[in-house]
Amino acid sequence: MIGPLFHREYLAFARSLGRGGFIRLVVIYLGLFGMYLPSSIESPNLALLPFVLFPLYMAGPVGIDTIAGERERGTLETLLASPLALADLLWGKFLFSVAAGSVFLFFSLVVSLGFRTLRGMAVAQPGAVLVVLFTSLVVSGFSAVTGMHVSVRARSSRAAQQWFAALSAVFFVATGALLKLFADKLIPGLKGVIETALVNGWESRAVILFAVLLLAVTGAMLLWLSGRMRVLWKLNSFR
Amino acid sequence: MGSTSASLTNVTVSYGPVRALDGFDLDIPSRGVHGLLGRNGAGKTTAIRALLGLLRLDGGTVGVLGADPVKAPETRRRISVLFSEDGLVPALTVMENLKVWCGFYGCGPRDCAELARKSLEAFGMLHAAQKPVKDLSTGNRRAVAMARVFAVPSELVVLDEPTASLDPVKASEVRAMIRNCAGDRPVLLSTHNMSEAESVCASITIVHGGKRILHGETGALTVSPGFVVRTTCGTVVHGGEVISPGPDGSVLLESPLPAPELLESLIAQGNRVEEFGRAGRDLEDVFMSLAREEGG
Fold first, then answer.
1. Which residues of A touch B74 (CB under 8 A)?
2. Residue A194 pLDDT level (bands cut at 50, 70, 90)
3. Do A73 and B132 touch (CB under 8 A)?
């Protein structure tokens, strides 16, 4: 049952953007991430960094719109009354948010690799690109599930967006500060490994470990969200 | 009222400290349109949510088409619902909205297109199939929402105030649509519009303060125990009393006698009867008198 819901989300997303909006998005993404940034960063591994960080800002707002936006448009209750199971609803919306948040970045990544090759700049190893793709997908998932969590209880779509922006800022700052303060205390040499990963190789164990840990956190948050939606549904307050 | 397609039995639902349904009973016959009537906040929408298994019940049981929708959510595949908000995705076209909805009911892409087309045709909205829903007028949106509800192969249709916010002409059209489409499956129509219920519903349940205060066939409920009598001289002699006519020239008599016997008795008492028949009362009179009794 996820298929029809995914299709519905896609149609709503595409129609809301419109042809003009779609072209503007493509120009911004491909211009910024596919051409400008890759050509201004010399290190091929460092040039992949935006593709890991920026999904955080892409999938979350889509996730918010699929719940808080739906509620504001008065369509959520009809969805809940449809034959869709609550789990289908959750997974359909989550997977669409991840896909919508990742697809432009993936195209930009491909363009950036081609662009660097054309300009005669060094290109990251295929293994590093694969790790970045995986990590980018995981960050998208984390962002989407965070957006959905926030929007389940937010009073409006706007309130959910504000909460999400604040949480994203906290995530960035806290992650940086924690790494700076405790990285070497937690795992001796971790700080050095991260720095090396950015400069010398994304295939390093530290990066893969980070991605896997984030994947586990995302999975736990999905389970939590599923339980929370069930509880709210039973308390007659999820609609 | 014959066999039932769905029922709520002694259902109690609370939203925090507020008791929305209090031992409420509802029996939806397996044919025709059944009206769920009540004032705003009486518990109509809560009853619908309970029927769909969307609520945690504090007590009571729900049965829909032989299953419990709380324990078996797949029962919702056999029900199609229109809430007071139409539930259409504004950015999608009319046709896309219907096809997506049919997809939720397990129909394949070709079936979805065919079901959507047929239903839009039945509701006179096929001409707008490729228009985005956001570009439609309120009345046309409601017609499309009705087409969505009746497009899927459900066995029970639930309509929550489908004519709210419509002008009288569109409301009348929607009522005609409900009457036309209710032939093949039972419909639960929730409304606070008494004349609408009277014109559309074969049977009704009136909810007040979360409780059922009346249910039965509409025709039987709107029949008064009284009789209207008009004589050549205006006054009516009955049981030794001379009763003066009302402003319309007729006399309203209440009698336990069957109509033929009462008419014979009136003639025997010397009345020259010009007109004789059962007095009618509309559903609004019934509802208002019940509301007064219940302290509403």
1. 83
2. low
3. no
